[in-house]
Amino acid sequence: MNSKLKNSERLQIKQQKADSGLMSERYPNVASVIVAMNYYNGSSGQVIMQRTVNFFPNSNTYFKMECMKRDCIDGGFNLETVIAKMMKGRLKSGKGELVCAGKDSSGHARIDYKISIKYKDTSR
Predict the structure, then answer these.
(1) Would residue 124 count as lying in a domain?
(2) What single DSSP character describes residue 83?
């Protein structure tokens, strides 16, 4: 991917993060969301990277994780619907697997994830 296209994509992501709003505004009853991920290259069973992302009340609610494949275009792993469903049901944990939907010529990456959500104590 050429650098001009990659820079344009980075600016677009930065704007989407800003537009997503803060957790304290969208999910006022949530204290934190922790997303632990293992990245895999295609169908390989070998973990190429482990990553943990923490979201707190002052964090943006941008739950799309980037694909780590260099040639990936318009890819990534969107956890927005997974996290929204968990919050709606007040679930504290969940796990699953996603495949990158990006366009590239060398196969797609995938992740498995574990999500932990802490809710604010509302009994006070």
Answers:
(1) no
(2) H
Alpha helices (runs of H) in the chain, residue ranges in sequence order: 3-19, 23-26, 80-88
- By C-alpha distance, which of 34, 38, 31 is closest to 83? 34
pLDDT tens readout for residues 90-122: 999 999 999 887 776 466 788 999 999 999 987
Total structural domains within the chain: 1
Residue 72 carries which side chain, given as an amino acid letter?
A: C
Task: Give the separation between CA 55 and CA 70, rounded to whole angstroms.
Answer: 25
In a domain, 97, yes or no: yes
Please indicate whether residue 45 or residue 40 has the higher confidence score (pLDDT): 40
Backbone dihedral region for residue 93 (phi beyond 0: left; psi -120 to 50: alpha; all else: beta): beta
- Tell me the helix, strand and coil percentages in the chain, rounded to 5: 25, 35, 40
From first CA to last CA, the distance across the chain in angstroms is 53
Residues 6+ apart with CB under 8 A from 21: 60, 61
Q: What is the DSSP string of 3-38?
A: HHHHHHHHHHHHHHHHHT-BHHHH-TTEEEEEEEEE
